[in-house]
């Protein structure tokens, strides 16, 4: 064992100049003072003549490995030998940590100065809620979040699509639940809902669109919740232009609970009501007068007196499913508009929509979209509108979604309201 240690740390005799130094190892196993830790012979610094010891023979001897203090007869005081570190390569190096700290400080200061001088936002609204986190306002009853309209969220008419605005509604709803500390394992489900394997499903949505934002517009979305009957919850939204405060969209929706395993509707447990009850706000985004103007979907969409358009073979893709394994409700809107005639989409814009969700569809479902068009839109008349009844159903005949939409003539971006409802102030 001793041989392996020696061969691992010290060179063999004759292999280096330090070999002769090892021969001077004393009986206790200690290295001589002139031998460094690397086995190289180092000459100690020579102290001044006044500090040198007159006789090295006066060094303390050792008996059985222990130092013995012997008093000399010639003097009552013992001579002391000052300690001096040997001049090795490492001792000669400068303090690199101090130099590195100085360089880092200079670099950070220069970078900060460059950033302050070079970064000049072209628009002040770009600084507002830059990361879109959102916040709770109005005594904890309203959640507000800002969105910048991206280039990939606009359509052929250079404005945001209805699907883009609907995605903003869904995003703020989930962020509201998360910020309030009520987000469980499900898609917007509370902790008590997650314990009971319950999820939210939308049963009805109504929306009014005053105008459509354009690329780089900043929109501000407010959302809140309220009770809807014994077992439902209502969620409302109000979207405004951030800079002008002009109303862009108002929407209301009704949500019910479904068992995630059985796919059947469920009553609202008292524990869940206790979680969401403190967040209820009785304010309504759409007034009763406005709601009366929103026609409900007809029970029978097929009407020979009206023009009918059909689009078949619609199938959900993997990207159309949410975390609860059913088709996202925004996707239904896209399918509904698939059967709308291109003449309406090119010259008109969606002014209002009412959707009744009847049945969810699965990943392997095959659907068809039907649209009945009634009414004529007169150019230049703000009161004229095209009305459409829509039906999205499975090929087996089961209804999935029924909808009613109204359309108004497109106007140049920035014009006043030409739709069915007046613009409300912020």
From TrEMBL:
Acyl-ACP thioesterase-like C-terminal domain: residues covered: 306-408
InterPro entries the record matches: Acyl-ACP-thioesterase_N, Acyl-ACP_TE_C, Acyl-ACP_thioesterase_NHD, FATA/B, HotDog_dom_sf
Occurrences of domain Acyl-ACP thioesterase N-terminal hotdog (ranges): 140-275
Any single GO BP term: fatty acid biosynthetic process
Top-level enzyme category: hydrolase
Ranges for domain Acyl-ACP-thioesterase N-terminal: 1-129
Region span, Disordered: 1-35
Entries under SUPFAM superfamilies matching the protein: Thioesterase/thiol ester dehydrase-isomerase (SSF54637)
Gene Ontology molecular function, alphabetical: fatty acyl-[ACP] hydrolase activity
UniProtKB keywords: Chloroplast, Fatty acid biosynthesis, Fatty acid metabolism, Hydrolase, Lipid biosynthesis, Lipid metabolism, Plastid, Transit peptide
Stored Pfam families: Acyl-ACP_TE, Acyl-ACP_TE_C, Acyl-thio_N
Gene Ontology CC, one term: chloroplast
Bias (Low complexity) ranges: 11-21
The protein's Enzyme Commission number: 3.1.2.-
Annotated localization: Plastid, Chloroplast
Keyword Transit peptide: yes
Protein purpose: Plays an essential role in chain termination during de novo fatty acid synthesis.
Family according to the record: Belongs to the acyl-ACP thioesterase family.
Protein name (Swiss-Prot/TrEMBL): Acyl-[acyl-carrier-protein] hydrolase
Organism: Triticum aestivum (Wheat)
High-level lineage: Eukaryota, Viridiplantae, Streptophyta, Embryophyta, Tracheophyta
């Amino acid at each position: 064992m001793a041989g392996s240690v020696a061969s691992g740390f010290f060179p063999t005799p004759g292999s280096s100049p330090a070999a002769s130094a090892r021969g001077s190892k004393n009986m206790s196993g200690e290295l001589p003072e002139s031998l460094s830790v690397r086995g190289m012979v180092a000459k100690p610094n020579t102290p001044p003549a006044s500090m040198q010891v007159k006789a090295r023979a006066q060094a303390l001897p050792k008996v059985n490995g222990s130092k013995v203090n012997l008093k000399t007869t010639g003097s009552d005081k013992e001579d002391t030998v000052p300690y001096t570190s040997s001049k090795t390569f490492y001792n000669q190096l400068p303090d690199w940590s101090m130099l590195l700290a100085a360089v880092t400080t200079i670099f950070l200061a220069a970078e900060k100065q460059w950033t302050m001088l070079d970064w000049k936002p072209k628009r002040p609204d770009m600084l507002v809620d830059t990361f879109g986190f959102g916040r709770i306002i109005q005594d904890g009853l309203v959640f507000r979040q800002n969105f910048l309209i991206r280039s990939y969220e606009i359509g052929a008419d250079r404005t945001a699509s209805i699907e883009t605005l609907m995605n903003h509604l869904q995003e703020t709803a989930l962020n509201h639940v998360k910020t309030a500390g009520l987000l469980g394992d499900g898609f917007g489900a509370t902790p008590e809902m997650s314990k009971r394997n319950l999820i939210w499903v939308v049963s009805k949505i109504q929306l009014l669109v005053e105008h459509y934002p354009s690329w780089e517009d900043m929109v501000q979305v407010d959302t809140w919740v309220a009770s809807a009957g014994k077992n439902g919850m209502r969620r409302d939204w109000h979207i405004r232009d951030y800079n002008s405060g002009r109303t862009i969209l108002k929407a209301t929706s009704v949500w019910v609970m479904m068992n995630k395993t059985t796919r059947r509707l469920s009553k609202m447990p008292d524990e869940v009501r206790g979680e969401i009850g403190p967040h209820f706000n009785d304010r309504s985004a759409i007034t009763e007068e406005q709601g009366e103007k929103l026609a409900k979907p007809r029970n029978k969409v097929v009407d020979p007196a009206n023009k009918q358009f059909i689009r078949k073979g619609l199938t959900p893709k993997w990207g159309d499913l949410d975390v609860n394994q059913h088709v996202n409700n925004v996707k239904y809107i896209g399918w509904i508009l698939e059967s709308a005639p291109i003449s309406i989409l090119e010259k008109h814009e969606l002014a209002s929509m009412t959707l009744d969700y009847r049945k969810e569809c699965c990943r392997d479902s095959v659907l068809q979209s039907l649209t009945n068009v009634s009414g004529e839109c007169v150019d230049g008349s703000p009161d004229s509108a095209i009305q459409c009844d829509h039906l999205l159903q499975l090929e087996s005949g089961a209804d999935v979604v029924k909808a009613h939409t109204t359309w108004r003539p497109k106007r140049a971006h920035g014009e006043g309201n030409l739709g069915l409802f007046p613009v409300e102030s912020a």
